[in-house]
Amino acid sequence: MKKSPKVNEVNEFLEIASDFEDPLEVIRESLSNSYDADATEVEITIQNQPNGSDIIIEDDGDGMNERDLESFFDLGNSRKTDSIGYKGHGTKIFYKSDRIEVTTVHDGTSYRAVMDDPWEKLNRKELPEYELTKNSVRSGNPGTKIRITNFRSGYGFDAEELTYNKIHHYLKWKTIAGSTAHYLGEDMREMEIAVTLDDAIDDTRAQLVTSNRLDFPAEQLEPSEGEYPAERMCKHYPAKEIDIEYEGGETTLQIVGMVGGKKTRNELPTYGRHSAQFGIWFAKDHIKVERLNEAVSHDNEFLHFFFVANCQDIELSANRENIRNKASPVYQAVKEEVEYYLSKVTQDPWFKSYLETRKQADRQRRTADQQSSLKDRRERIEKMGFEPDNKAEVLLGLERAAIEDQSLSLSVEDFDPNADVHAILRQNGRLRNAAVHQTLTGLFEEEVPLENTDIAVCWTHGDPAELKEYERNGYFGGEVSLQLEEGGLQYHNDDSRYIEIIDVESLLTSKAVPTADD
Amino acid sequence: MIGADRVGVDPLTEYFDASMMSVSSLTDYNITKERYEAYLETPIKERELFEPFNGVVFADSGGFKFLNNAEIDGSDFEVTMNQETVYDIQKALGSDIIVNLDHPIAPGDSHQERVQKAEQTAENIHEFLNLTRDFEGAKYLTLHGYNYSMMTEFLEVITNEVPLGVLQEGFDGIALGSLVPKKDNRDALIKAVTDCREVMNDWGFENWPLHVLGIASRAIPILTALGADSFDSSTHLHNAINGKYNRSMMEQVPLDDVDFTECDCPICQSDLLVDRMRGNTEYQKDVLGPVAMHNLIVQKRELADLRQCIKQDGTDALIEYLEETFSRDKTMRQYAHKVVNQSLGGYF
Predict the structure, then answer these.
(1) Is the pLDDT of residue B67 over 50?
(2) Beta carbons of A350 and B348 less than 8 Å apart
(3) Which burial class, exposed, middle or buried, applies to A28 when counting CB atoms under 10 A from its CB (0-12, 13-18, 19+)?
(4) Cβ B346–A345 below 8 Å, yes or no?
(5) In this prediction, what percent of chain B has a pLDDT beyond 70?
(6) CA Rg value for chain B
(7) Helix ranges, A226-322 (H)
(8) Hey, are the CB atoms on B346 and A349 less than 8 Å from each other?
(9) What ranges make up the beta strands (E) of B225-283?
(10) I need a labelling partner for A359 at 20 to 30 A (CA). Which of A502, B193, B237, B289 fits?
(11) How is residue A435 annotated by DSSP?
(12) Do B327 and A340 count as a contact with CB atoms less than 8 A apart?
């Protein structure tokens, strides 16, 4: 006996509609549908409502016939074959609302389909129905108007967050409104897109009007003046169509892009942070889907690049956020081709000069930083005199003291800042092991073994109370007795050891103030 | 080809048109004095064994061995190796192209060591030019260094001993040496050859051919595009020894996986040699000999294509060649891009 698996229709609709959270995805769907219907103008209106938002999409496209309307409401029954929306999932997002009204004129017939309470019914496990009426009209004025009442966004989403700015950037980054097809000289139809938000959502302007083209910022091959000369540099890399053969077929890759500095990138719309948007994009229908930033090696930083690699043979996941056929030979072949193309871009002498400009500017900024930091340091010296703040400077002080007072008969012969016993001094002709610290307390704090130390060199003794504590509590099982007046300390462990203390500050009779050389 | 009559293949003079010899290949191998002397008795091309080979014999001086040994070791034959002996051997081999005895530098050499080696080489050059006045073949001047400054310095030291005019008059080409330790560092090779061409230009050697000593197959297309004219390579042999059959200059496959019908070279067209390459012969040399020859033919054919691309007007053909050769080779393609950008006008 053969049995067919069954589908619970209501649950399927619920599932698919729930997959989409963002009302902006409604716009993405609608724009693609309008473009496919040869529309030249699309108007989108969003009004804030107490339980959600009303979304109205109107276009002057070819309209839908009865069969198209069925696809519009059906699940998995799209009439498209390869372009976006071929799974017939997209419009099901509209089911998250209180009412769907579609009015469409196609070939002299006007159709009106109304579905009431789709979301409520689905949640009651009831399959919503739509009422379809049709009338003959004068041909010549086709088009479609879709009105979604009380569209429910995902949790935590508020229609008020939908500013013009956000919608604009979303359109350019995530929908066909951000198509780069025009760079490929394709027969691309221009489509004017107008978005109107009611004042409760955004009253900063009356309307947003844009096209279905994403234009790169103007080229600027030379560096600018100023602190960040590379920030407005920009080069366009001309669109290229590459035929690719792979095991099992052939496909076409269309690739176009630009390289640019931060200021250039800021001229492009961005949906989210730049770091989340720039890089190498795979696209289908010229709508960006997923990035392949590893196509540029790590040291080149993907952030400087914006490339769109369009291929109709990549397949998308149901929510269109990911590529589904990554394991396929076609994806692998396209990916390799993209990587190869980008390897040429990263070896382009212009790109290298751009990086070089950045590097030089960075160097100049560092020089400037150095200047101000050096100025601070010099001022501090003028004011405070010599004051070591590391071990090497303590030794520098010691050497200076030895020069000032020849009778000390001291010189530094060797210095290893990473060793416990940092320096080897020559004292009265003999080599002696010295631990060097800014303060004597530092020697104990760093838990230096004293067994091989002949001399403790320090700038000052440090906190006498702390030193007393070592005297009181002992040091690594041994005892310490300080004889600071005599310039030494006694360390008793298994053995007894006398360690000479050289306190450099007291050796330098007067704080030397160097004369400025400028 | 040697022994062509025995294996029933037409002479492959088209492919076997030049041979590289090194003086050190005689002196370094543990042969007897008698064998050594016998070897030098008759010039290569006059030996019956090599009939009808009439290609070019390029005899290196063996100076590269200075990297490993303090001196070329001629002690087995009671011969003191110096410029004069080296030239005598080159002459005895019947060489068509010779180089002076040089002291190649090593990557770890100090500045002082490099200068010293250049000074030693300069003395040899002086002597070489005296010795070779009547030599009828071509003379290549060895040049050592990894970049423009090192090569310039080398020439400055040389011209302290031998005036530039004498160098220009006395030599016919440049043999760029010391690159073997850097053979796997493509960036270094590209830099060396690019800079060498620049140095040649600045020193009045711009019309001379440039031979790159000891650098082999995979780097060849790139270095050729940058202006190197000839190479000496034993990659075809080494590949064969390792059981590798060249599908192209870039691609080798294990001998066991080869479909010989896919290749139209005279070796793979010979039933006898294919049978041998399949292992149906007693001696391993009879298996690998034809493989080596096949590998050489593949390389030579590809080089001929490459030359053809270079000869064409414009750079498109050469760029296309590099594209085809390297587009799927992730490790090499960045260098191909570098060459396209540096010498061929770039992609964009």
Answers:
(1) no
(2) yes
(3) buried
(4) no
(5) 93
(6) 21
(7) 262-266, 274-277
(8) yes
(9) 230-231, 244-246, 252-254
(10) B193
(11) E
(12) yes
One-letter identity of residue B302? E
Q: Which residues of B touch A (CB under 8 A)?
A: 327-328, 333-334, 337-338, 340-341, 346-348
Cβ–Cβ gap A336/B347 under 8 Å: no
Nearest CA distance, A193 vs chain B (angstrom): 34
Instruction: State ipTM.
Output: 0.71
Q: Is the pLDDT assigned to residue B80 strictly greater than 80?
A: no
Q: What percent of chain A has pLDDT over 90?
A: 61
- What DSSP line would sit under B39-103, residue for residue? HHHS-GGGSGGGTT--SEEEEE-SGGGGGTSSS---GGGT---SHHHHHHHHHHTT-SEEE----
Q: Do A347 and B341 touch (CB under 8 A)?
A: yes
Contact yes or no for A348 and B341 at CB 8 A: yes
Q: What is the pLDDT of residue A49?
A: 81
The average confidence (pLDDT) of chain A is 88
Of A343, A345, A349, which is closest to B333 when you measure between CB atoms? A343
C-alpha A90/C-alpha A267 separation (Å) is 31
pLDDT reported for residue A189: 82
| Measured distance CA(B144)–CA(B230) in Å, rounded | 16
- Could you tell me if B210 and B193 are in contact, meaning their C-beta atoms sit under 8 angstroms apart? yes
Identify which of A502, A407, A411, A406 has the alpha carbon closest to the alpha carbon of residue A453. A502
List of residues 6+ apart from B157 with CB closer than 8 A: B115, B118, B119, B122
Backbone angles phi, psi at B131, to 5 degrees: -70, -30
> Is the previous residue joined to B52 through a cis bond, with omega within 30 degrees of 0?
yes
| Strands B173-177, A479-483: pairing kind | unpaired
Q: Is the pLDDT of residue B29 over 80?
A: no
CA angle A217, A218, A222 (to 5 degrees): 120
In sequence order, the 6+-apart residues with CB closer than 8 A to the CB of A399 are: A410, A411, A412
Tokens representing B125 are 């050059």
* DSSP category for residue B109: -
Using the beta-carbon criterion (under 8 Å), do A347 and B328 form an inter-chain contact?
Answer: no
Give the chain B residue whose CA is nearest to the CA of A340. Answer: B327
CA–CA distance, B156 with B166 (Å, rounded to integer):
14
DSSP sequence for B272-301: HHHHHHTT-SS-HHHHHHHHHHHHHHHHHH
Q: Which residue of A has its CA nearest to B329?
A: A340
Contact B337 A343 (CB under 8 A): yes
Q: Which of A277, A266, A267 is nearest to A303 (CA)?
A: A277
How crowded is the C-beta side of B174, counted as CA atoms within 13 Å? 29
Residue type, A71: S
Per-residue pLDDT reduced to its tens digit, B103-132: 999 999 999 999 999 999 999 999 999 999
SS3 of residue B223 by DSSP: helix
pLDDT band at B1 (very low <50, low <70, confident <90, very high): very low
Our CA-based measurement puts residue B346 at a distance from the nearest CA of chain A, in whole angstroms, of 7
Residue A142: the pLDDT is: 84
Model confidence at A512: pLDDT above 80:
no
Q: How close, in Å, is residue B327 to chain A by CA atoms?
A: 7
> Looking at the predicted structure, is the pLDDT value of residue A517 above 60?
no
Region A398-416: what's the mean pLDDT?
A: 93
Question: Which residue, B289, B336, B270, is CA-closest to A340?
Answer: B336
The C-alpha of B111 sits at a distance from chain A's nearest C-alpha, in angstroms, of 27
CA pair distance A307, A341, nearest whole angstrom: 10
Read off the amino acid at residue B266: P
Q: Using 50, 70 and 90 to split pLDDT, how confident is the model at A481?
A: very high
Write the CA distances from B199 to A12, A501, B159, B290, B308, integer angstroms.
74, 62, 14, 41, 26
What does the DSSP assignment read for A103-122? EEEETTEEEEEEEESHHHHH
